[in-house]
Design brief:
5 helices, mainly alpha
Length: 188
């Protein structure tokens, strides 16, 4: 047998064997089926009628309402939960507890102010706000965020300075680099 066809036959056989192995593994994960594996659907799935898009328990998208108040309150609650999680993970030493308490007091005050602002938001919106309203809401959220950071920053920096290098690594990871940490760019 010439060498060139052998160079093509061996890789082709390996690819075919891998494909068959993968296919039989996929069939095995779906249960012990004696039916031959199907490579494609026989017919495309039927489209969901627009009226039933939301399902039996959820209204269709056009009929859904959004609750800015509930979303805001959820955000504040997640921040409080995140703070508790980080506190448990840090395993604070007795000399670090007063610094954490000062930070926690400042963060709790910020959470209370944010929660008060949440109650001023509408309970539900049936129509999407226009561009100007959305821009104003975004500005208000950013102002609140800046106020929160400024209120918590001194106590948070003091806490961070009191942490061990291992705790700082955990703290850095848990706060997400200020991306999702919550009030004050860290644990809320």
């Amino acid at each position: 047998m010439p060498v060139r066809p052998l160079f093509l036959a061996v890789p082709t056989a390996l690819v075919a064997a891998a494909g068959i192995a993968w296919l039989t593994t996929a069939v095995a994960f779906e249960g012990e089926s004696t039916a031959a594996p199907q490579l494609a659907q026989a017919a495309p799935p039927a489209a969901t009628p627009p009226a039933a898009a939301g399902g039996p328990d959820r209204p269709a998208r056009a009929e859904r309402t959004f609750s800015p108040r509930a979303a805001c309150q959820d955000h504040v609650a997640r921040g409080i939960g995140n703070r508790a999680y980080i506190k448990a993970r840090l395993e604070l030493k007795p000399e670090q507890v007063p610094v954490w308490s000062a930070f926690e007091k400042a963060a709790d005050e910020v959470s209370a102010k944010e929660n008060a602002k949440c109650t001023a938001l509408p309970a539900d919106l049936k129509t999407r706000p226009n561009f100007a309203d959305r821009l104003n809401m975004r500005e208000d959220m950013m102002k609140t965020r800046l106020e929160s950071i400024q209120a918590v920053k001194p106590s948070m920096l003091a806490l961070y300075a009191a942490l061990t290098p291992e705790q700082k690594t955990l703290f850095d990871r848990s706060t997400g680099g200020q991306g999702r940490g919550g009030s004050g760019g860290g644990p809320r």
